[in-house]
User: Fold this.
Amino acid sequence: MDNLFRTLLVATAVASGVSAHAGEIAIANPSFESQTFLDGQENVNDVTGWIGSGSWFHVSNPQDHRFDGTSEGSVLPNPIDGLNIVGLNTGTTLYQDLEAVVLPKASYKLTLLVGHRRGVPFGTPTISLIAGGEVLAEAVAAEPEDGKFSPFELTCEAPESGGVVGQTLRIQITSVGADAQSWFDGVKLSVALPPPPNGTIAIANHSFEEPVLADGTFNLNDTPGWVGSGIRWHVANPNNGWFPGTSSGDAAPNPIDGSNIGGINTGATIAQDLTATQPGLTYTLNMLVGQRIGVPFGTPKVSLMAGGQVLAEAVPVAPASGTFAAFQLTFDSPPTGDVLGQPLRIQISSSGANAQAWIDNLQLGYAPTPTPPPGPEIVIANHSFEAPAQADGNYTINNVPGWIGTGTFHVANPQDDWFGGTSEGSSANPIDGSNIAGINVGGRIYQDLTAVLRPGVTYSLSMLVGQRIGVPFGNPQIRLIAGGQVLAETAPVAPASGSFSEVGLTYDSPAEGEALGQPLRIEVTSAGRDAQVWIDNGADSGADSSATTGARDCYRESQLRGAGACRRAIQHQRHARMGRGWVRNSTSPILRMIGLSARAPTARRIQSMARTSVASTWERRSIRI
Assistant:
């Protein structure tokens, strides 16, 4: 189901090269979907992209008599990825040599699904990561329940040096045991590199001590290490007539570094290209900026650039006449993008009437970009639609506490004839709690939140959407709104009949605008022919589900025609979980249907050290329905 998506992700990760901090490693045919089989069919000793040895190995499109939920149209949740799985009989080995090689001090994580065929011994299958003939890590998979699959994980850290570094990685699976057979699916291998240490980047002639000048003299259009353009740029060895304390032998404190400073007149620019831009780093440029006595400072601009793109820039505040002040500019590089690998450029330009800006002691450092700290959560009333309470199989019409609706809308406690796994006592419930909300064609529900739109914040909204068995999904829309303006919207793709999938959208708020300060609104609408969309909340991994659920929204619902109107065959699709890894720190009840997070963007952060002001800082908020 997600093989194409995985392939595209892998291509991006590989293209970024060794410098990437983390990524997924390409595996040929990771979910064994390369061959097409009818339900219940299989082959023998032919697995595309893999090499096998031993008597029997297979690719199979299984059915429920082997693994629960794998028959086409099964009423049980499908436990595998896609349609096919691979099986190994006793004494058989299956392996694949990857294009990736072992990187020093890299951490590897191999995950897959392991299955126990009903009525057949499982044995003791061994799963290994190998390079250069040496086993990096291996383990015996724990035996799942009869007829079921369970997840498996194998991790290791490569040495800093040695024979395996630079060797091709191999994934290997071996089946051992008396008359045993083990089954596998959804193989994934990820790598994470240690973050680079803090460091500095060399800037040629960073303090403008070249060329050597006598006290009180200057040159014109000659700054070693820098490229200039325009009419006039300088290196000067100033004296007290320009900046007090700079004359040779003066007892007053010298405000500059060394003897010289650099100057830029109106219309001129100086620039220097440095090392290649790397992902996941915070670059910090520090410098001194000065205003010469009796000369306008103008509006100089300091920029960090790469590949012709401005990464971050700012206009320094004018210091007092005859003084220097500290200035800082920072940039958080993205994990991917076309600026990566391009030379990082420092560029300084001057503008203004008869203006002149002076600079000194440029320092450029870098450090791994920190993870944004968690922030308070934004509450969404009745986020998981558990109000009003409904008996199993019952529903209400046009009554969703906490929400305002138009047209026909519902709260329902569904059963398996609507969505597989939702009947009371059914296993693998795909929703959060008991209830979900539905919207018929022409209807909508919305909620105005207590949170208002703030400047310079990235908002991320996620929710579950579901397609009821036998009912068209239509063309629902999910929107984030403020002040009557649609900030972001998306039309979710229809999930498989009888299943839920997750959908998300993001919005970067501007620094100014009419919508700022206005309450945020979440809105879901339904359109189409006899259609109906259903929505609910879903749990996020890595946090307590009582306070941390992701958001799920809108499933269209066609007209309700009575309690028995939807008794139709169920076809399941494994639904994706989005919003993984969110950190939540609120102890108050949170709405669990829709998740909306807000954080300051990482792109550009500017700080004036003279005024100790920060233009943007990290923040994160979460909204739940």
